Amino acid sequence: MDYEVNLTALALKKISKLPFIEVYGTQCIQKKIPVISLNLSSLSSSEVAGILDKKYNICVRPGLQCAQLIHKTLGTINRGTVRVSLGYKNNLQEINSLLLALEEIYLSSKIGGLT
Fold first, then answer.
1. Long-range contacts, stretch 69-78, CB < 8 angstroms, 24+ apart
2. 12 vs 30: CA distance, rounded Å
3. Angle at which helices 2-15 and 92-111 pack, to 10 degrees?
4. Rg (CA), the chain
């Protein structure tokens, strides 16, 4: 569990530096369970998850994740969030791959090249 918590804290630290990503539930980064909820600019969570899956072979879960009341509170009820779940088999290289993929998706959305 310590490995997962530390990996999550590192991932959050890196993700939080990207201005086009909104991260939810970061009040206690050092003790956070290994789940990160985020949104990418104005794209839907389903669109981001689909591109991550098809183009980058990265599996995340989009939508409301069986927590509609939380999404109502967060203001994400209409698009949900992208949920990244980390485990003991994940590593820093995979975090970096996710960050690069999110950046490419964002840049592609700005020039109209989403696929």
1. 74/24, 76/24, 76/39, 76/45
2. 10
3. 30
4. 14
Two tokens, residue 94: 């995979």
Tokens standing for residue 73: 């509170």
pLDDT score, position 56: 97
pLDDT of residue 38: 92
Q: pTM to 2 decimals? A: 0.84
Amino acid making up residue 36? I
> What do you get for the CA distance between the two ends of the chain, in Å?
36
pLDDT at 111: 79
3-state secondary structure of 3: helix
Q: What is the mean pLDDT of residues 43-68?
A: 90
Among all chains, which residue has been given the structure tokens 């104005």? 42
Query: Which of 19-23, 52-56, 78-82, 109-113 has the lowest average pLDDT?
Result: 109-113
CATH 3.90.1150.10 fits 2-110, yes or no: yes
- Residue given tokens 């839907």 in the structure block: 44
Hey, is 82 helix, strand or coil?
A: strand
